[in-house]
Structure formats: structure tokens, C-alpha cells
Design a protein that fits this description.
The complex is a heterodimer. Chain A has six helices and 15 strands. In chain A, 29% of the residues lie in helices and 29% in strands. The longest helix of chain A is centred in the first third of the chain and has 22 residues. In chain A, strands 1-2-3-7-8-11-14-15 form an eight-stranded antiparallel sheet, with helices on one face. A three-stranded antiparallel sheet of chain A has the order 4-6-5, covered by helices on one side. A two-stranded antiparallel ribbon of chain A has the order 9-10. Chain A has a domain of 67 residues: ApbE-like superfamily (T-fold). Chain B is α/β, with parallel strands linked by helices. Chain B has a domain of 191 residues: NAD(P)-binding Rossmann-like Domain (Rossmann fold, 3-Layer(aba) Sandwich). In chain B, strands 15-13-12-11-7-10-9-8-16 form a nine-stranded mixed sheet, covered by helices on one side. A six-stranded parallel sheet of chain B has the order 3-2-1-4-5-6, with helices on both faces. In chain B, a hairpin with a 5-residue loop joins strand 9 and strand 10. The chains are: A alpha+beta, B alpha/beta. Strand 9 of chain A pairs parallel with strand 14 of chain B.
Amino acid sequence: MEKLSAHVDFHESSGLFHASLTQAMGTRLDAIIVDADKNKSVRCWEQIRNEIFRLSKSFSKFDKESELYRVNQLANRAPIAVSDTLWSALVDCKKYHQWTVGYFDISQRNYDHVVLNTENHTVYFTEKSLQLDLGAYAKGYALERIRPILLSEDCRCALINFGNSSVLAVGAHPHGDTWPIGINDPYHPQQLLGSVSLKDSTLSTSGNTPNHTNHILNPFTGKPTDARKIVSVKANNAIDAEALSTTLMILPDHLMASTLAHFAVDEYFIFDL
Amino acid sequence: MQDLSRREFLKNMGVIGGSGIVFSSLPLLHSFAQKKAEEAKGGKARLAIIGTGSRGLYHIHNLLKMPHAEIVALCDIYPPHLEDAARLCPQAKHYNDYNEAIADRHVDGILIATPLHEHAPIAIAGLQAGKHVFCEKSMARTIEQCRQMYEVYKESGKVLYIGIQRLFDPKYLKAIELIESGAIGKIVGLRNFWYRNNDWRRPVPDPSLERQINWRLYKDYSGGLMTELASHQLQMGTWVNKSLPDYITGFGDIVFWKDGREVYDSVSVIYHYPNGLRMTFESIISNKRYGMDEQVLGHEGTLEVARGLLYRENPKPAPGIQQLINQIEHKVFDNIPFAGPSWVPETATSVKGEPIMDNLQTHDGSNTTGADVDDGSFGLVSAFCSSVITGEPAPMLVEEAYYASVLALLGNKAMEERAVIGFPEEYVLPG
């Protein structure tokens, strides 16, 4: 856990457990678990921490020790065998690539040039300069791994905030019937763009900020879009929300309906600003 | 407060007794000083300034702004310095011999800003003559003299102040308050450093005056970087750790300024405490990149005390999350505004410390006379004047200064012997 610095506190009177990781997949993760039994929350947190650590060892593009890093270095020479974790993620990304007719693309170029061999779970890049980036996928995937941890410990009231962009709500706010999450306007920090009520559901937000612009590229043009500034998607499944929020930043209008038909989406918002 | 016995005082401070004296005086000392200032109102402390070189003049400038201070006498053996002071205090009598200045019946107290080797003889003469004494730091040139000065002070019943001005510097008081409130967790390290890039020399009009003017560079007069700089910072050790080190070691050398000086221009000293904590002092005067600071390292945060900055090991929860925590704590249900594009962390090097108080005044320790912002010197001398008027010493101040000075001198001893030395039992003050 050398790179994950953690902070934990517990508020006795309200049963509120709060913990955070400051270097989780390049961002921070905050977990709020409300339960009178502190030990349950602590057990959950231990498992969450371990899971995040495990996933970052597979999914990080920057960590030289990670599996994805190795794939990016070597898969253009020969097929590289990968772990079950990375395999399932890469396969899942194929599904989203198809559902979005190529607009969700973790290679940001052409995911069709990534050959996944289902027999021996190897990855091979037919285009030599390809690089994979799971940034639009990994946080949603992590939230879907965290959800069963919470449920297995019977934690029914929890909110996991992964870098503000990916949120998992289990149950509802202890003093309300949902978790009401406000979406910030990055261009006007004091203003809210809107609010989304989560209950056993997830929210993913993608977009540009004043100091972090144009990082979502259209794989067909290789260019960013500046028409849409922020997209938020509320869905039951955190990976669906994650994949779709990125896709909707760049998806042409005429493909909206057909793409959305694949997803079980509760609500989505596109802000032009 | 004034009737409090020493034992009760220590108890009030929540200090654990052990072998010898262990203490933490200071935020309380500050309020003590305010109370004394109230009692001293209307009175005047009539002072003789002994040693009117640069530091003496610095104090004179401050004293002239204090309504409860009156400079009645000036004393220096170097005429140009005496003349400088006389221009500022035309009413004051002039002396060349400190014994005469002390004997002046108009003098209630003396302020000593002479070279270090003269501190003990003059302070002891003053106390024995029944005068109150303010003596610049470091306390004295040798450990024996420090102890002797302490004994005479105790016997005399007079007021003694040593110029450890951090005790009156608001940012230090605030830092100690933060440390004691647990803001940075368990203290795991103390790092003191003082870097300058100059030869530490003053211009000498005639070679015969070299040792007199550049006394800081010669061992007969000065303990070098340890007594002149470290003694300020080593006080943090007792202030923060509330105990004395058991072992001391270090190295000192003349690395760059090989100009005939006798004192080191580069020192590294380690003070080891019985609980495993270590305090370091490092000073180099041929590189000023890192300036001066005292860094208190806790397992939950770091204080850069001279800069007045606090760094937390774990950043505070993101604003939205903190809001949510507060809501749940207060049984409030409301919108939680935090969703947005992915939060990108600041890198460690760009994390800025939080100022520990408003109107923070800092300096980089480069001025060899005194800071150009208030570093507590004014408050300390003002408190001394109040004490001269009321006749009441400041609790624990001399003890703090004594240990700071002894630690500085033990650092020199360890470096000179190239040895690990223990804290000598005979220099532990009786508890």
C-alpha cells in the first residue's frame, strides 16, 4: 500500500465512518459509511482499500509496475497474456465500443486494432503505436467492485465518491430518502448546474474544466470537442454510467437514440455552458 | 497566578515530572506578561544599556517606544558605539566600566548586549548588586557560567531575562498551541536549520580591533553558530518535547570561510531524546538557499514554525464531502455539491502550507542584528521592563533559556570531541 495514503475517522454519535485515499488511480476516493457498528465499516474499508490497490496494479497507465503499462509496452510486438481482471475489463470495453459504434474507445484511435484472443486471454495490437487508457472505465469498474463489498457486510447506507466524477450511492442519506448530489459548474465554482438524487444507483460526470480541457478525444477525428462541456449520467450500473458519460461528450446527435437504447440509463444531462 | 508555587505551576501545565525539571511554560508566560504589564502601568523601568553595538541599538530603538522604559545609562568600551547610542539617548549617562553603570543609583535594571564571554560576569555583577538583568542570548560562554548565573539569579531574588524572543513571537505561541492540541499528531522529529551566505564579519577600522569587533569568530568570546544561532532554535526542543536529550553528537568544520576564524562555519548536531525523538540543528553560512526554520514533524502534519505554515499529511476532506459529514453529524438533509469532472490531485511539491494565523509576520533569519519584522524581541524586552517595575520574575523563562544555552554548548562540546556525549547530570536543574 506504499503509494496509497489513507485517512480514516469515525463519528461516534452519528455512526458516520469516513475514509479517504488520496492517490487512488490518479485521484482521490472518499467513502462515507453510516452504520452504528464501526467494525463493519472498518472491515468494508479494509477490503475497499485492498481492492483499489489491486485494481491500480492492473489498470494504471502510468505505474511502471502495472499490467496495463506492460501491455502498452509490449502488445504491439506479440500477443501478451493478461490477468483475469484486465481481461474482463478489455472484453467489457469491446462491448461498449460496439454499443457506441466506436465512440467509446479506450485506445482513443481504433479499438478494432486491439485483438483479444478468447482462448488464451492474450492482447495484441495490430497497429504498432496504439496505447490503451482505462481512465473512462476504471473508476466505474472499481465502484462495481466496491458495491458487493458493502452489501456483503450488510452496509445499507453508504456513499462512495471517486474523484467527484464517479459516485456510488448505497441506500439513502440517513436523514432523507435519497442521496442528493449537486453537479458543480467548473467554470463558476459557486454555482450548481443541477442536482441528481441517487438511491442504490450511480452517477458519472465527464467533461472539461478550465484547467483541464480537451482530454476526451473523438476517436474518428482524433480531436476533442468543445461543444459539450459537462455530461452527467445516472444509471444503475456504475460502468454503464462511466462509459456513457465519456461517450456522450463526443457522440454525434444522430447516434444518440440508437446508442442510448443499449443502456439502462435513469437520467442524463449534457451541459453546453 | 502570582501565588502559584512552582509545583502547582507545573501541575497546571500538565507537565510530567521526571528526573530534574521538565516543563512547558510558554503560552502561559505570554498571558503572565500581559498581566504584569497591567500591574506595571504608570511605572518606569530605569535601565542601563551595557553593550551598545548593533544589537544594543536595536533594543534601544524598541525601548524608546515603550512608555514604561527609560534609558538612564549607556555603557560600552568602544567609543564609536557609545556615541551612536548617546545620539539616541541624549539624557543618559555614559560609562566605560560596567561596574560603574551597575552602581549608578538611578539604574533599576541593566540590559546586556555585549559579546557572549561578558554575559556571565556582567549579569552576575548586576544581580549581586541588586539590579534586575536582561541579558541577550546565549546565556553565557560556558556551561559552568550558565549554571553559576542561574544560581546567582535564584539567590538574588531579582529578575533575570534572557533574550530568547521566540517566547514572545505570536506565531511560535500559535504553533505550540497547535502542537499541544494534537493538530499534527504525535511528534516524530524536530529539524532546525539556519543557512546564510555571508562571512559574518563586521568592518574593522583598525586590525587591533579585530577580535573586539568580530568577537563572534573567536572561541574566547563566542561559541560560534551554536551560541549565536542554534540557541534560539534548540529551545524548541524543550518547548515541544518537554524533556531533555540524553545524548548529543555532531560534526563541525570550517568549510568555506578559512579566514583565520576559530569557530565552525558549518555544523550538524543531533540531540537524541529518551523517547527516541531526535532534534537536529544544521547551519552553513556559505549557502543561503534554505534560509532559517524550525520544522516540527508529526505523524499527521508538519509545522514550519518560522514560516508559520502547517502542512497536513492527509489533506482535509474535499469540500463537498466535509459538508456531507457536517450534515450527517447535525442530522441535516441537504444537497451535496461535489459532482464534476475528475478531481486531479496536486502534486506533493505544489501543496502549499496553510498559514497558522492571520497577519503572519516572518523573516528569513538573514539579518545578523535582528529581524526587520517583530520577532518577539519587542514583547520580550517590554515584559522585562514590566518585571523591573513589579520586581517579579517571569516563570520558567530563565530555565528555558538555560537549557537552550546548555544544549548549544553541549553541541559544541560533542563536535569538538567528535563524540557522542550524554547530558551531564550535574547540569540538570533541580526539579
